[in-house]
Amino acid sequence: MYYFYANLSILLTNMPLITLTSDLGLKDNYVALVKAEILKNGPDTQVIDISHDVEKFNLMQAAYIFGNAYRAFPDHTFHLIGIRSHTENKRILYVEVHKQKIICIDNGFFTLLPETFDARIFSLSEKEFPVGLFFMRDTMVNAAMQLSITGNVEKLAKPCDDHLQSMLFQPTATSDSIVGRCIHIDGFGNVITNITRHFFELVRKNRKFRIILPGTQLNKTVSDYNDVPETNALALFNSFGYLEIAINRDKASQMLFSKGHIDFNITVQFED
């Protein structure tokens, strides 16, 4: 009996774990087909969705969503990133960083992730792992399965030092202001900026401030959405440490920013 449970424990420990992040959405059958391909090749594989609602081709938003999730998974989890960009190479990268394994197109995506300076980067064979029409199903799943079986990346890929680099939009600061940018609107309509708490406090220097929004201004941050009355605007630093603009029980993205896209700036003015 002990032998049975010991071997079961080893089997469960070695079960592959794959996460999926894409802009495929859930209206169509694309995500189901990716999962079907995974389970066909590895019936015991665990598959976790991080998100499939990334705005089409929006690498920065994808990097925010994925970058604040992937390190929470067990070591050696495979992460498949099914997002194209408007310009990219026709090859797929395999990246090992923070004991996680990322498979993505060579379009600069992983360079937008925080703290990837010590990443090991490989390019997969373009002949064996092409970027086709449905590359997430037809190529990335195959790559993940082969890499998990062989455990030796050098057999399938070669080190890569000429991958594409993306320019991460950083908030800019003057002596009395910060200009940041919306990088994500979540499912509640909350507007998430690229201004981190650390950067905010570094520039603020304990001064009073005004967050300038369409039709209103905020002069404080709160710790919870319910710290203001319903339908009132608020600012807080979310659980990932980013400045977020919200409206209690409503959508800030619709009430304050009506253009319907996430490409706009947020200004914080400081007062001596």
The averaged pLDDT comes out at 90
Radius of gyration: 21 Å
Shape: elongated
Ends distance: 73 Å
Helix content: 10-25%
Percent strand:
25-35%
The CATH homologous superfamily of the largest domain is called S-adenosyl-l-methionine hydroxide adenosyltransferase, N-terminal
Compact description:
The chain has 272 residues and is of the alpha+beta class. Helices cover 22% and strands 30% of the residues. The chain has 6 helices and 15 strands.
What does this structure look like?
This protein is of the alpha+beta class. The protein folds into two domains: 2-159, Rossmann fold (3-Layer(aba) Sandwich); 172-271, Elongation Factor Tu (Ef-tu), domain 3, CATH 2.40.30. The protein is 22% helix and 30% strand. It is built from six helices and 15 strands. It has helices at 2-13, 30-41, 59-67, 135-150, 197-204, 252-255; strands at residues 17-22, 46-51, 78-82, 92-97, 100-105, 120-124, 157-159, 172-173, 177-185, 191-196, 208-213, 216-218, 233-237, 242-247, 265-271. The strands form two sheets. Strands 8, 9, 10, 11, 12, 13, 14 and 15 form an eight-stranded antiparallel sheet that branches. The protein has a seven-stranded mixed sheet with strand order 2-1-3-5-4-6-7, with helices on both faces. A hairpin with a 2-residue loop joins β4 (92-97) and β5. α2 packs parallel to α4 (135-150). The longest helix is centred in the middle third of the chain and has 16 residues, at 135-150.
